[in-house]
Amino acid sequence: MVQKYQSPVRVYKYPFEMVMAVHPDNEDWTCFEQSASLDIKSFFGFENTVEKIAMKQYTANIKRGKEVIEYYLNELMQEGITEIPRWVPPKDKRPLNSDPSAPIPSTFRSTTSPSSSSSSLTRPKPAGSPLHLDLSSPGNSSRDVTSFSAGSSEPSTPDADKLDADYIERYLGQLTPMQESCLIQLRAWLQETHKGKSETGEWKAEKIPKDEHILRFLRARDFHLEKARDMLCHSLSWRKQFQVDYILETWAPPDCLVEYYAGGWHHHDREGRPLYILRLGQMDTKGLVKALGEEALLRHVLSINEEGQKRCEENTKIFGRPISSWTCLVDLEGLNMRHLWRPGVKALLRIIEVVEANYPETLGRLLIVRAPRVFPVLWTLVSPFINDNTRQKFLVYSGNNYQGPGGLADYIDPEIIPDFLGGDCLCHVPEGGQVPKSYYQTEEDLDNPDHIRLWADTIYQSAQVFKGAPHEIMIEIVEGSSVITWDFDILKGDVVFNIFHSKRTPQPVKREASGLAPVVNNVQLIDRSWVLGVDYSMVESPLTCHEGESIQGSHITRWPGIYILQWKATGHTPTSGPSLSRVDDVLASLQGSTPRCKVMFYTEVLASHDFRGSMSSLESCHSRFSQLSAGTTSSSQSQGSSLISR
Fold this sequence. Notes:
By secondary structure, the chain is an alpha+beta fold. The chain is 27% helix and 23% strand. It is built from 14 helices and 25 strands. The chain has a 6-stranded antiparallel β-sheet. It has a 5-stranded mixed β-sheet with strand order 8-9-10-11-12, with helices on one face. Strands 14, 16, 19, 20 and 22 form a 5-stranded antiparallel β-sheet that branches. Helix 8 runs parallel beside helix 9 (342-358). It is globular. The two termini are 42 Å apart.
């Protein structure tokens, strides 16, 4: 089956194949084999990534299904059941594809443990046995399971083997005996292992999460005790290392974030869950990343999740019933192909990974309204990184479908539907808009010594360009026809951007700071003894870039080897900017020269020889706000192109 998009996307999808056959060693055993293949020809440079995550997701689903089957097989073996009759269809209801004249075998006996074979053995319910086999996940809350064997230690106190029924109903919700047992065992294990020394040197128990929080991790792992414990332990270590417990007291969002981040809390839904509204289509995600950095955006997202948990506790008291998750309403009006900007997608996936690992089962429902045609492309990239249980909570409305039957009114009271969606309730969520480039900052400007960095690396880097000292970076290409992509902003001064192919391996020479001068990022790779046309050659026409411009582009390489990207100061002094010298200029002058230019840049190499649309994936996602100039430079000889936006 071939799915065609208006954009240059080609996905060839072959349906998975399932084969059931008789086991060669025992005719009473049934073997199940599944296979699938996926070939993506073109997907905005994400071809290899999409193929890997798709097959990874498929493998995980197969593994999970095997775990479910083995779980119930183990339950049978623990009860001593080794022989059960083979299922016999009713005499008046044979399978449509069966042979009426074929004899029906009676029973079969298993002598091999299912864990020692890669084949999955399915066994029917024995006649007259009260055992009920349900081949859905073991953690389904709708199932009554009266026993659970996880190999974990029993609760440390005799009265901790059962929770009060009123407490469960008031704060936790409906739990099966197995689920209640898992919660008690995990809580007891935390109380036993999370201990620290007091000031007097005595051991005392550290503060452990509340039952509602522990229950989220158990639900995220389908009440598999070992998996939930590992996930919770990693999260507790992460919270302690980065002091996440204090983020609501220590984190104050910058003015840029308050003004241009189009998201905020807005009352609650019909079930009492806190309601968070995000107008993603109106946000200048590229401007926010360049102005604040991924670190600040991640901290803001973490503070939203912490605030959400706090609001859930408050609503639990207000409504008198357990509320452990919130509802998110996402408005995608204005979303277009520019939002598929590669650094932005990378930052989004990193944030999703952190949230999924540390805030499981906190999203009760996600309502997506006014989804445009480009949404399926974005969803294809993002959905594999979202937990299965979370994906099932998504509801997507295109156009004005959210206003009809089955729309928002089924989940949100009409009197609190936001005004921008046709409701009567005034919504105070910021409208977003284009972030002024005066807010853009380098990683040195964003460094905050009061915060422990959550991420060691950043997507964007910055550099300073001096007179006679350009900044250069080296990119090694292993295979020809690879695609070098770039996205950079000129924060100060005017520069000339060049791309060279080098026949020699350069030795980096970094400009060092001295005395009171600040640390600068300025590297030269092209030696003064090199001769242009002999030791290295120009593969792109020089591109003059002025202060305040954003440049995105790509270059399809013809040969493997070393490529050098260079930003070089122009001969004239910029006329824009204040007349007085800045502090950093004064400090830099102590080195004998003043930095003429500042550049913030991002580069990436894509190994897809048939890659197309790198400019689209790197374009500024200013949506309808951006104004693209006609100053576009391209070179047919080097198969490269650049796009300038102001």
